[in-house]
Amino acid sequence: MQEEYDALMANNTWTLTSIPLCRKFIGCKWIFRVKENADGTINKYKARLVAKGFHQKYGCDYTKTFSPVVKPVTVRLILTLALTNQWPLQQIDVNNAFLNGLLHEEVYMDPLPDFLPFDSNLVCKLHKSIYGLKQAPRAWYERLTSTLMSFGFVNNKCDPSLLVLNTIAGCLYVLIYVDDIILTGSSSSLLQAVISKLHSVFALK
């Protein structure tokens, strides 16, 4: 719980503010999981703060929610290209991915249980999307793709979760499935350079 709270604070996820007139705020709760290794031994205990998105009202604290994910046929096509040309493949995962999404709507949430002092006049005004919000996947997708596009990538017209970079050094393909990302391309150095750029923006593993 402390690790999750520290990540929320480091990411400037919210600010405490007084309750606005005529605005409703949503609740939140802790979700606990035990992550196991392949052999069944315990890898780690995980706690995540989740917003009660079912309290949200359309047009008030959310609008668009759709977030594309890469199509299976696109995955097969790119993996076939990689295997045929013997390109390097790299899979990366983003820590606390949804916390990187920027909110465009005003969303207010109950103060964090067990960590913030209770004050009936204060709520958390969210600046970043957190897990459980209806627009969280879309906000994260927009943040990730806009970052990649600032590196020179372009969206594929047939599949918006496939981004392509063409340079003199070679070509690179990025497949996006929520917070799981696969990279491949004709240049190992270009691939590592893009991963380093991503790591300067997001916490990768």
Overview of the structural elements:
The protein is an alpha+beta fold. It has one domain (2-201). 25% of the residues lie in helices and 32% in strands. It is built from four helices and ten strands; from the N terminus they run H-E-E-E-H-E-E-E-H-E-E-E-E-H. The strands form three sheets. A five-stranded antiparallel sheet has the order 4-10-9-8-7, with helices on both faces. A three-stranded antiparallel sheet has the order 1-6-5. It has a two-stranded antiparallel sheet with strand order 2-3. The chain is globular, with a radius of gyration of 19 Å. The two termini are 20 Å apart. The model has no long low-confidence stretch (mean pLDDT 91).
Topology:
Blueprint: H1 2-10, E1 14-18, E2 28-36, E3 42-51, H2 72-85, E4 89-93, E5 102-109, E6 122-128, H3 136-150, E7 154-155, E8 162-167, E9 170-177, E10 180-185, H4 188-201
Antiparallel strand pairs: 1-6, 2-3, 4-10, 5-6, 7-8, 8-9, 9-10
Class from secondary-structure proportions: alpha+beta
Radius of gyration: 19 Å
Tell me the strand percentage band: 25-35%
The domain tally reads 1
Anisotropy-based shape? globular
Order of helices and strands: HEEEHEEEHEEEEH
Q: Could you describe the largest sheet, including whether it forms a barrel?
A: 5 strands, antiparallel
What is the number of helices?
4
Catalogue the unreliable spans.
none
Span of the ends, CA to CA:
20 Å
Extended strand count: 10
* Percent helix range: 25-40%
Strand order of the largest sheet: 4-10-9-8-7
Let me know the average pLDDT. Answer: 91
